[in-house]
Design a protein that fits this description.
Layout: E1 3-14, E2 17-28, E3 32-36, H1 43-50, E4 58-63, E5 66-67, H2 73-77, E6 81-84, H3 96-102, H4 109-122, H5 124-128, H6 139-151, E7 157-161, H7 169-186, E8 189-194, H8 197-203, E9 206-211, E10 214-220, H9 221-226, H10 228-235
Parallel strand pairs: 3-8, 3-9, 6-7, 7-8
Antiparallel strand pairs: 1-2, 1-4, 4-5, 9-10
């Protein structure tokens, strides 16, 4: 398989604190890859480093064969990469429809409308709530909106940061099912950062475990789910 995204020896710092310690990671075209780890392990930092903020101090970040390590964030995101960030960060005073349009920057009106219909098919609740202000949606609906807004740019690579955070189990299953359907129907490549290790590893083709800024384990989703050290650290009592 061809790697769409590769990290080689990537380090990142917040001031004097080293948050990433020589991370190697590959996301192949058409894969769902998950990064699991405890709170504070550096998962969100890795996502932000891919997007250029903070900048990787050492190592390389390769996307579609090109080194993007030194590019500013806005040029990285123009390369068909989209992020649904931790905390959702929707525009609370804008309607669902307006929020979605914000994700279609640079697309023609026809492309935006076509993609919006695809988002509505994936998340029917968004169509029902199209005229409603984002800030009045439930947590699960806001997460659907954040993912939908990211999809509006028609990305090749979708970065999903903690999509299950704070959501009820039923809503989590709905969102993860939508991600799986999207990957299967369109071949969209997904890098998923998630504390819900059980759901993430069931969804992903492959996974990595991040501990204190370093990758300590890698394998297929089923392989990692079966490993006793993963079960003890992340799954026992978790579901």
């Amino acid at each position: 398989m061809t790697a769409l995204l590769s990290l080689r020896g990537v380090t990142a710092f917040y001031g004097a604190i080293q948050a990433l310690k020589g991370v190697d990671l590959d996301v192949n075209e058409g894969e769902i890859v998950t990064l699991i780890g405890a709170n504070g392990a550096g998962k969100s930092t890795l996502m932000m480093t891919i997007c250029g903020n903070p900048r990787a101090r050492d190592g390389q970040i390769l996307y579609d064969g090109a080194d993007i390590s030194a590019l500013p964030t806005h040029l990285i995101m123009r390369r068909a990469i989209a992020q649904s960030p931790e905390g959702r960060r929707i525009f609370p005073r804008m309607s669902v429809y307006e929020n979605l349009l914000m994700g279609a920057h640079g697309r023609s009106a026809a492309e935006a409308e076509e993609t919006m219909e695809q988002v509505f098919a994936l998340f029917p609740r968004m169509k029902e709530r199209a005229t409603q202000r984002g800030g009045t949606l439930s947590g699960g609906e806001q997460q659907m909106l954040a993912i939908g807004r990211a999809l509006m740019s028609r990305p090749r690579l979708l970065l999903l940061d903690e999509p299950s955070l704070g959501l009820a189990p039923l809503v989590v299953r709905q969102i993860f099912s939508a991600i799986r359907d999207l990957n299967r129907s369109t071949g969209l490549t997904v890098l998923l950062v998630e504390q819900n290790a059980f759901q993430a590893l069931r969804l992903a083709h492959r996974g990595y475990v991040l501990v204190n800024g370093a990758i300590t384990m890698a394998g297929t989703g089923p392989d990692l789910l079966a490993r006793p050290e993963i079960r003890a650290a992340y799954l026992e009592g978790g579901h």
